[in-house]
Design a protein that fits this description.
Structural class: mainly alpha
Order of helices and strands: HHEEHHHH
Number of strands: 2
Oligomer: single chain
Number of helices: 6
Shape: globular
Distance between the termini: 37 Å
Amino acid sequence: MLGSLWLIPIICLAGAALNLALGVVRAPKSAVTLVGVGSIGASMVATYAALWEYLHQPAEVIVEPYFTWISAGVVNVSASLQLDPLSAVMTAFVTLVGFLIHVYSIGYMHSETDAGYARYFAYLNLFMFSMLLLVLGSNLPVMFVGWEGVGLCSYLLIGYYYDKEWCAAAGKKAFIVNRIGDLG
């Protein structure tokens, strides 16, 4: 499992994409729930499998480079993920809490229409992908993509009920505060 760290965040990204597609075709809530909760559940299982294997490895830091992302002269930045003691604990925590939030959301969003329900779970899965990328990123550019993804998803989730003026305003405020926070 340690050679497949990329599966942990990608499963959530796949769940987000699939839920967006399910929203377009107006799939039933049961299908959306299965994809949304199932993808974070699968990501959590992959996390705990990697954690179990990591605990039985002699290496303290495992870095898995996937491809060269930026290459300029002697500077090479790879798209890579890393598992170390801190990221292992944080990934386990993030997937567990994320799974519980997904389960809670089933009841919380029960009155939503099928398209809105799918959109919500797509945003939630995209948030999980971004958070896992932030936690597992092995260098600043990868972590920055995760950070910006978390900010975007915060805006999308806070402003979820965009047809209500106060929700749209709260989403905009969250976005602006995130931009200001990025500066300093």
